[in-house]
Design brief:
The protein is an all-alpha fold. The chain has helices at 2-19, 21-28, 30-54, 57-61, 63-85, 97-114, 116-127.
Length: 149
């Protein structure tokens, strides 16, 4: 019976942990997870370099260890400040389709009014190209009635 009580408490504790705002934020925020990942990797690299036999002197002398520690500290600082600030709220994007459509129509009207070439291209596209032809008469002109000499 005592085992059941421990299991129930453990399950309740894990459920509470997943509902805390920080855990939810960590799960949802890619940038926060990336900051923690960068900090972990940089700290691990620094630890591996120090533990390779160089000892604590590497903290003072080795520039790569110092760079890794600085990178880890910066990433943790960014993660901490983003957790402190809370989640960033995104503003919903408004779509002004009506305004854009009216602007497009007005612009097209002005362009058609100004440019004769554009008007002819539009008319040719809508109604087909005009056929240009020369008229030639099949009749012969009559001679004047008075008869000039």
């Amino acid at each position: 019976m005592a085992a059941r009580g421990k299991q129930a408490k453990k399950a309740a504790g894990s459920a509470a942990a997943t509902t805390t705002p920080w855990v939810q934020r960590f799960v949802e925020d890619d940038e926060l997870r990336d900051n923690f990942r960068v900090a972990f990797e940089a700290a691990k690299d620094a630890f591996d370099r120090v533990s390779e036999g160089k000892g604590p002197r590497a903290l003072v002398e080795d520039k790569k260890v110092q760079k890794d520690l600085k990178q880890a500290a910066d990433a943790l600082k960014e993660a901490g400040s983003s957790l402190k600030d809370g989640p960033t709220k995104r503003k919903p994007r408004r779509r002004h389709l009506g305004r854009r459509l009216i602007l497009l129509i007005v612009g097209a009207g002005i362009a058609l009014a100004v440019s004769e070439d554009l008007r002819t291209k539009l008319l040719d596209a809508l109604f087909g190209k005009e056929e240009e032809f020369e008229y030639s008469s099949t009749t012969t002109p009559s001679s004047p009635a008075g008869g000039a000499v």
